[in-house]
Amino acid sequence: MESSFKSLNMDGHFDFKDIHHAASDFGNRYHFLPVAILYPKTVSDISSTIKHVFNKGSTLDLTIAARGHGHSLQGQAQAHQGIVISMESLRGTKMHVHTGELPYVDVSGGELWINILHETLKHGYAPKSWTDYLHLTVGGTLSNAGISGQAFRHGPQINNVYELEVVTGKGDVVICSEKQNADLFYGVLGGLGQFGIITRAKISVEPAPKKVKWIRVLYSDFHSFTKDQEHLIALEDTFDYIEGFVIINRTGLVNNWRSSFNPKDPLQASLFNSDGRTLYCLEMAKYFNPEETDDVNQKMDNLLSKLYYVQHTLFLSEVSYVDFLDRVHLSEIKLREKGLWDVPHPWLNLLVPRSTIYDFSEEVFGRILTDNSNGPILIYPVNQSRWNAKTSVITPSEDVFYLVAFLSSASPSSTGSDGLEHLLSQNKRILDFCGRAHLGVKQYLPHYGTQEEWQAHFGSKWDVFARRKLTYDPSAILAPGQRIFQKANTQHSRDLRK
Ligand SMILES: Cc1cc2nc3c(=O)[nH]c(=O)nc-3n(C[C@H](O)[C@H](O)[C@H](O)COP(=O)(O)OP(=O)(O)OC[C@H]3O[C@@H](n4cnc5c(N)ncnc54)[C@H](O)[C@@H]3O)c2cc1C
């Protein structure tokens, strides 16, 4: 097999030896060793490789996974005994910022969002919709959705793309957009890598601000917290970023903010005591340029005056736009220093309809979880109207739904409450409750063990999803790590059948 690939005419190269890192990811729980890694230099390297595997049919027992930055949680970018394509090697292709009526940046599918930020800023622009962490690739987030505190207004990242270049599971290179090959375009967006490999994307940008006012306020009452979040995301003239998180049994947490956030009312804030209550923190940001400071302060005061947070719990910070967007990277650096980044991450991401978020919170924050010392729990609403229903991503069917993300890190050797088993069983209890109580919850970055579960996840959209698979990747070569479809005769499918 090695020689058959070496005979292909390539600009990049295959590595058959140094392959172990492609069998790991951020989740650090699933490890499938490939047979080779392709480091493509050109789109034609990717196309030739896929064509080669496709044309050999079942005689070549191989699947192919695009690997972005490998920040998946359960082996989604891995290919057991297959080929992993290191998409970051395509990054060499230059980024182009196009100004004009509908400005956009044209980037490689393997580009990191942090690099896109820096490049677009040179032209005074930046993408509109982000993820909380920017060391992820375009292809990786567009295969899911790409959600952060801007999504209530701009929709997820998949709603901010004008055009894609995709290599399908037959090796065809196809340009697609709303107007051209729309079925593939919408299929690929949120399509979990099932229909093609994204090699280029044209991403919508807007003029970038220089600075950010970053604000946190606290609630002890879930109703007031969510009511205020929903009020803010419904307004036209509102904050530019709206998120929130839950604080369960963490007395010192607010004190830890003191290094970066200033209480508006230091004396009163120092007297604030959570008394062991669960707290909810509404996090907001307003973008501005220095010359607009007075105006932006006035707008913010006006917005804040209509909120029902606990008195004297307003915390403020002012940072550059880059520091705000790249904020999680600072935590990464600190965690790496302590050896706490490369640990198992049994994360659970859910999309919860507005009508059931209260029941969800009562059970999950009130009964299942006793604290959140293993990692943050994010919770914030978005507007369904900003999500294009034609894409492949699955959301609850209500006008407003919440992203709830349990971002735990496990202590690798522990069998206690910070151990992997405990955290996984907590996730299972949450999922079981959502199912039992019929809350209409959908998984984000979904992960299932059987095709029946995948069908239930996709619901009425399953037929379209399965039809697209047959059209664009009929041999089920691509993204085997998602475990939705199986190539009939791979080692992996044989192992699974045993
Ligand atoms: C610290 C951290 C913070 C995060 N924060 C957020 C957040 O705020 N919002 C959010 O939405 N997500 C967030 N995520 C999740 C993240 O968006 C996904 O895990 C994403 O898949 C990671 O991107 P990646 O480039 O590492 O992709 P990978 O893990 O490498 O790949 C993910 C999937 O996409 C496929 N794929 C990769 N590249 C391509 C391509 N070019 N074409 C087609 N398919 C491809 C892979 O085969 C795989 O199935 C976060 C993850 C981490 C680790």
TrEMBL record:
It catalyses: N(6)-dimethylallyladenine + A + H2O = 3-methyl-2-butenal + adenine + AH2. PROSITE patterns: FAD_PCMH, OX2_COVAL_FAD. GO terms for molecular function: cytokinin dehydrogenase activity; FAD binding. Residues 30-208 form the FAD-binding PCMH-type domain. InterPro entries: Cytok_DH_C_sf, Cytokinin_DH_FAD/cytokin-bd, FAD-bd_PCMH, FAD-bd_PCMH-like_sf, FAD-bd_PCMH_sub1, FAD-bd_PCMH_sub2, FAD-linked_Oxase-like_C, FAD-linked_Oxidoreductases_BP. GO terms for biological process: cytokinin metabolic process. Transmembrane segments: none annotated. It holds the Pfam family FAD_binding_4. It comes from the Eukaryota. Keywords: FAD, Flavoprotein, Glycoprotein, Oxidoreductase, Signal. Signal peptide: none annotated. Its cofactor is FAD. Belongs to the oxygen-dependent FAD-linked oxidoreductase family. PANTHER family: CYTOKININ DEHYDROGENASE, GULONOLACTONE OXIDASE. This is cytokinin dehydrogenase. It comes from Nepenthes gracilis.
